[in-house]
What we know:
This protein is mostly helical. It is 63% helix and 7% strand. The protein has two helices and two strands, in the order H-H-E-E. The protein has helices at 2-34, 37-54; strands spanning 60-62, 73-75. Strands 1-2 form a two-stranded antiparallel sheet. The chain starts with a helix and ends in a 6-residue tail after the last strand. This is YtxH domain-containing protein.
Amino acid sequence: MIRLVLAAGAAYVLGAKAGRGRYEQIRKTANAVASSPATKKAIEVGRQKLSDSLNTQPRLEPMKPIDDETQVFVPRDQLRR
């Protein structure tokens, strides 16, 4: 707990010494990075990978259709390649 208070105090002092101009510079840079299309794409890909890894249902791959109306699916990990 003491370390947290000391870290917060050090951050406050260093931030106060840097001044408002540096704060605005950091804020603008952070906003530019957060609104970047590359950042948004990376976040979306990461979320999708996390969702896929946490999904309890297996990913299904289609096999050969039996007829025009019937399609058989098998979990991806059981699919022979």
